[in-house]
Amino acid sequence: MDKLLFLNFCFFDALLYIFVKYFAQLSHHSTIEILTYANIASVICLSPFAIYNWQRTKAGFVPNLRLFIAAPSSALKTVAVGYLPIKNVAIISYLAPGAVVFLSFIMLGEYEKGKNKKFIWLAVSFVGVMIFVGIHDIRGNPFMYSLVFLHVLFKGDRSNKWAKDVQREFANLKIPTPQLIIGFYTPRVPLTLAEYYAKQFNIPWFADLQDDLIDGIARNMHGFSLSWAKRVLKSAKTVIQVSPEWAKAEAEGLGRNVVCIRHVVPAPDNALKSVRENPPPLNNTFTIFYGGSINFNYQRLDILNQVSKQLPPDKKVVLSFAGTEAMYKKMEQHLEGNITLQNAGWLDAESYHRQVLSAHCCLVLPWALPPRQVIPSKFYEFCQYDKPIWIVGNDTGSFSSLFNEWQHPKIPTGDASYQLQTLLNALNGDYSGMFLPSRCQNAPLTEARLYEAYTKYL
Length: 458
Fold this sequence. Notes:
Oligomer: single chain
Structural class: alpha/beta
Helix content: 40-55%
Number of strands: 9
């Protein structure tokens, strides 16, 4: 009964914030007023459960302390909302029941009972998430946050669960003892597992970070993310990033050396090597191919649009866009000028391969704003083809360092006049203003050389 009541309390408060703003708008009352009324209702609803259990068990004060805490906590919040900021009210109301439930389990000696351990830690985990989310839920999306509450309550941290699943089943996988472990990020689980099994086997491990450690993490959680990374990566023999700019930034944040190994240029699929396609003659339509998604917050079309607007109307230039229908519609909204957008649709591997081969050049949009100081992975994919790559847009500096490293002639990717002339020259068969893999003096990293790149840091 005590567990049921505590869960009832958790469900009630999780559901409360789904409706509070809606009812506040509907009734023309303030959010604080609706919260007050709702918490008075929770005291009325929960008190009979606590009184019933007291009469049924007669087990003394301590066991029932965790039952009665639901109603007093709601009463406390009812009073507090009138005097304190809402984030402080959330912390008070969610921390109090969690602390009392946890301490009462300890005082009763119930913590050692195996069946109660998971419930205790789920309760504490739930309270921790509620404290964090309670600071934001009034300003954020209550429905989505409530789903997080319930997921954490019953499942715990999903990433940690994945790691536990692997550890539980590892013996059944019959994996030979390795000489080196490489953990990739994102997500967090591979790094956690690499650290764990490197200790188990007493072997070195590398952390290969495919993303910025704080990218996509709320600003107020950056400190927690870096603390976690420092702890896990402390035992890694080598930490690797995919761009020198990110490697430098991560080295400062982690307080240790971080090396750069760029993305490899993938080897062509053996099944597609026999596929042959040729672009149409240049006196017809000039076709540019783009495949994948676009983050319009960081990949800007302003330079491309300037070129498109200045392109003479008699020049037939088509941008063949391969991706989802939703992404194509967004591209339609953002692309301006005389370049015609064509929907290639969502392609399978062979159709995608044919589209690239039949285009005159491929388009890459650089990341225009920090913290995305990295080359779009699509660029490395296009490098496997002996095909001009048109890199258009302001760049955070990542392409400049790549041109230096690969010893390719510099390309002012954010210069609209240069890009217009480059396109006009390409219409006449001159691709010198675009990126050409064959012009690199220093060969890019390939799959065949990846082992060599890793092992030199052992």
